[in-house]
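Researcher: Here's a chain I'd like modeled. Treat it as a single chain, no partners, no ligands.
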Amino acid sequence: MHWNKFFDKTDKTQMYQKIKNLIFKIYAKWKFRFQKDVYLSLGENCLTDDILKRYDLKSFSTPFSSCRSNIEYILFFEKRYYKDFLNPQFLKSEQALEKQVVRNKIIEKNKKSI
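Model: Modeled as a single isolated chain. Structure tokens:
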């Protein structure tokens, strides 16, 4: 049976109005959430993220919010929609400043695409 057989024209009009109202409420809720400026951390290290948190300006987190990175690295993964970002084939553990860190080495294989 088709759903039209269960509703008369009045019911359909009311149903469409309810759906329209629901969509408007969802839109209004999210619209006001992003009317202010949006701040996100794309810094060299977690300092940027910490400063945004301290002054209650942080809008949301990114994969680069609390890690050591640089603008080339960020742009590389953004352009690729984060393809292979966490692929174990390219993640390598290394020593850095007396700490063991994990780095993605795919960028070294694709230097020409940066």
